[in-house]
Amino acid sequence: MSTIYTASCSVSSLFSAHSRFSYPKPSSIQCSAAGLVAESKAVSTTEPLLLNAVKGLDVERPPVWLMRQAGRYMKAAMESVQARRSKYLFPVILFSDILTPLSGMNIPFDIVKGKGPVIFNPLLTQKDVDEVREFVPEEYVPYVGEALTILRKEVNNEAAVLGFVGAPFTLASYVVEGGSSKHFSKIKRLAFSEPKVLHALLQKFTVSMANYIKYQADKGAQAVQIFDSWATSLSPVDFEEFSLPYLKQIVDTVKLTHPDLPLILYASGSGGLLERLPLTGVDVVSLDWTVDMAEGRRRLGSDIAVQGNVDPGVLFGSKDFITSRIKDTVRKAGKGKHILNLGHGIVVGTPEENVAHFFEVAKSLRY
C-alpha cells in the first residue's frame, strides 16, 4: 500500500506463509537503488528535504513522493532521476502491506489475487478479541527492521526514509469485516451493539501499532505515515469515539520516546473530519483530492504541515495539464510545511511517462 522512491527493499515470499504460520518467513531481503547505489562514505549530517519541510524550515521546493500501488511505476521515476544524474531526490518508503502485523497478532489471513485481503476467522466476539496477542515486531517481522536499516545506510541521509502502519480502526475494519468492505456493516454493528468489544480490539491495535512505529524508527525510519483509510466511513461523532482517541494515544506514546519523529496521518475522504485530524497530535495531515488545498490549509491551521493532494486522475491528462495542476496545488499550499503527493494512490493504467513527468515537474519547482 505504499511505494519506494528511489531505493527499494523487497522481501521474498512475504505473503507465502501469512495464513499458515505465526509469522511470514521471508527467504531473503534484497535492497537496491536501481543502479544508483550510494558509495560508502560517512553519514551525511544534512537533514533530508522532507524533514526540513515538515519542521517549517526554509526549503527551496516541496519534497515529493507517491502513495500506494506505485511500485510498478518505479522505472519511470528512476528514468527521471537518471536523466538528471542525481540520486535520492525523493523520500524512500519501505514496501509492505499495512496488514503484515496481523499474523503476528494471531489473526491469520491471506492476500487473494483479484480479491485482496481475506481474514479467515473474522473477529466478532469478546472471545475472539481475547485471543489477539500483542504484536512484537522484533519477533514477527524482523525483516522489516533489517530492510529499514539497509535502506537508511544506503540512502545516507540524502533522502528521508519513511515507514508506515495501519491505524487501529482501519485494521479493526479489516479483521471484523473479513476483508475489504463497502458498507462496513459488521464493524458498525459491533460498534453500536457491543462497543466494549470493539474498544478492546482497538486498544490492542493501538498498543501494537505504537510499538511498531517505534520499532521502525529505531531501525531507520525518519518519518512514519499512519493510514486510517476506513475511518472516514464513520460519522464525526463516531470518529471521535472509535478512531480519534486511539490515534491520539499512538501519537502520545510514540512522542514520549521519539519526540522528533514526524508522524503523517492519511485518511481518504476526510473532508468532513478535517478539523478533527490535528487533534490527534500528528505533524502532517495528508489531504485527498476532494479537498481544495487552499481550503484545507485554512481549515487545518498554520501549525500543521500538509501533504498532497493532486487528483490521481490528473495523470491521465496531457503533460501541460499535469504541470498546471501540480503548480496550482503547490501555490495553494504555500511556501513550506508541504509535501507534494497525490491525493491517493496511482490508478492502474496510468501512463508511466506521465508519472515521470510528475517527478520532473516536482524537481524543477522553486518557491
Tell me what you see in this structure.
The chain is built from 13 helices and eleven strands. The protein has 367 residues and is of the alpha/beta class. The model is unreliable at 1-8, 10-28, 30-43 and 78-88 (pLDDT under 50). Helix content is 38%, strand content 13%. Strands 3-6-7-8-9-10-11 form a seven-stranded parallel beta sheet, sandwiched between helices. Helix 12 (319-333) links the parallel strand 10 (305-310) and strand 11. The chain has helices spanning 49-55, 74-83, 126-130, 137-140, 142-155, 168-177, 185-193, 195-219, 236-242, 244-257, 293-300, 319-333, 352-364, and strands spanning 8-11, 29-32, 92-93, 109-112, 116-119, 161-166, 223-227, 263-266, 284-286, 305-310, 338-342.
Question: What is the fold's blueprint, element by element?
Answer:
Blueprint: E1 8-11, E2 29-32, H1 49-55, H2 74-83, E3 92-93, E4 109-112, E5 116-119, H3 126-130, H4 137-140, H5 142-155, E6 161-166, H6 168-177, H7 185-193, H8 195-219, E7 223-227, H9 236-242, H10 244-257, E8 263-266, E9 284-286, H11 293-300, E10 305-310, H12 319-333, E11 338-342, H13 352-364
Parallel strand pairs: 3-6, 6-7, 7-8, 8-9, 9-10, 10-11
Antiparallel strand pairs: 1-2, 4-5
Helix pairs in contact: 2-13, 5-8, 6-8, 7-8, 8-10, 11-12, 12-13
Features:
single chain; 367 residues; alpha/beta; 7-stranded parallel beta sheet; two-stranded antiparallel sheet; 11 strands; 13% strand; globular
Shape: globular
Low-confidence stretches: 1-8, 10-28, 30-43, 78-88
Sheet of most strands: 7 strands, parallel
What is the end-to-end distance?
Answer: 31 Å
Give the count of helical stretches: 13
The number of strands is: 11
Oligomer: single chain
The radius of gyration over CA amounts to 20 Å
Strand order of the largest sheet: 3-6-7-8-9-10-11
Mean of residue pLDDT values: 85
Strand portion: 5-15%
Helix content: 25-40%
Class derived from helix and strand content: alpha/beta
Order of helices and strands: EEHHEEEHHHEHHHEHHEEHEHEH
